[in-house]
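Long-time lurker. I teach an intro course on protein structure, and each term I like to show students one example going from raw sequence to a predicted 3D structure in token notation. This year I'd like something fresh instead of my usual example. Would anyone be willing to generate the tokens for the chain below so I can use it in lecture? Attribution to the forum is fine with me.
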Amino acid sequence: MTSREGSLEAPTRHALAWETPEFYNEAKLHDEMHRVFDICHGCRRCVSLCTAFPRLFDLIDESKTGELDGVDKKNYQEVVDRCYLCDVCYMTKCPYVPPHAWNVDFPHLMLRAKAVKFKQGGTGLRDKLLSSTDAMGKLATIPVVVKFVNAANKSALARGVMDKVLGVHKDRVLPEYDSATFRSTARPNASHAVRDGAKTPGKVALFSTCYINYNEPGIGHDLLRVLDHNEVPVVVVEKEACCGMPKLELGDLDAVARLKAINIPPLAKLARAGYAILTAIPSCTLMFKQELPLMFPDDADVQAVKTAMYDPFEYLVLRNKDGLMKTDFKNPLGKVSYHIPCHSRVQNVGQKTRDLLQLVPGTEVNTVERCSGHDGTWGVKSEYFDQSMKIGRPVFKQMAATDPDYISSDCPIGGRHIQQGMGDTRAVKEHPISLMRIAYGL
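-- Reply from a regular --
Happy to contribute to a lecture. Here you go:
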């Protein structure tokens, strides 16, 4: 019986059987990798997305047989290490994802391989440190420490040492830390009356995220101001840890479970109390919308949080449809080059940030829908920095094409990466939430 070629049905995702011994069985893992890699070899639609697929196809083409059977399975790891779990191949390119009978889920297969590597002790100190965003942030934002850390990140001598010793590329522009963390300085206004809409809850709980808390708290403050202007009562989640995405990308699934045990109880309480839960970082939103629900499909609290979780612009666009968002914009934004990150795209909510920015009079939005190539910690690493810049090159070109007044991305790290790749430009980098605050004249 033959399988049909491709699928016109919407992709579906299977739960991750990460707690079973079979998940970590290396021989069974390699068998599944061989099966999926052979399908990829016969298709090759994803060759332009990242460097994982080109490396796979090079390994095959350069082998003695020119087929997958000529590739030593120990070299499969070269493909795994180049996958940063953006999910774009699954969501936009692959015709064989479930419910197709071939059942290809390349990102979650790579996740399984990363988890096996971690279990076997193959993960180095650098990767463990880079993925410990909460711990690193707490240390780096101590007032007496923060000045030293920020100065070291800008010092050519210190960066040279970091490159050689830690494997953090000397040319990667790193975000500064801020001792005035978001959670310590946030002043949410919960006094507004709750106005539920047909599509949206009328009150918001804000999950800060590590990056907003430690690196760019201004984005979080701007989000509070935008919500306050729209008379939405807001609270900041009383207790939180890292969402777990960096540990997921590392393959440390036990750490993900530990972080879930911290985050989900207070979030579930808020979800059941009727709050919309917002995070300003797409990867964190995706973690609660997709990855944790797939890891814990039978956990009612996880599923409740999934239902209550919104991207900020998803929420605001729905508020506008409810007739409950103000459009009293005071300032035009001019030409905005806006990049939609991979982890926004795979949430399947559409281009809500673009839609909202286009409501601002005197604003022209140039939308770039392509991977920028940074992905969290991947583009920071010495061995992948050049590849990340290569992947981002078409994005840098498209972002600069309109000579914009602003460059913007929902992913702040992606925005920094794009700014670095563009080089000299008159454009100002601002997060889309900050652009909304500017447009409102707040």
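Some talking points for your students: Strands lie at 204-206, 234-236, 276-278, 309-310, 334-339, 363-368, 406-409, 428-429. The radius of gyration is 22 Å.
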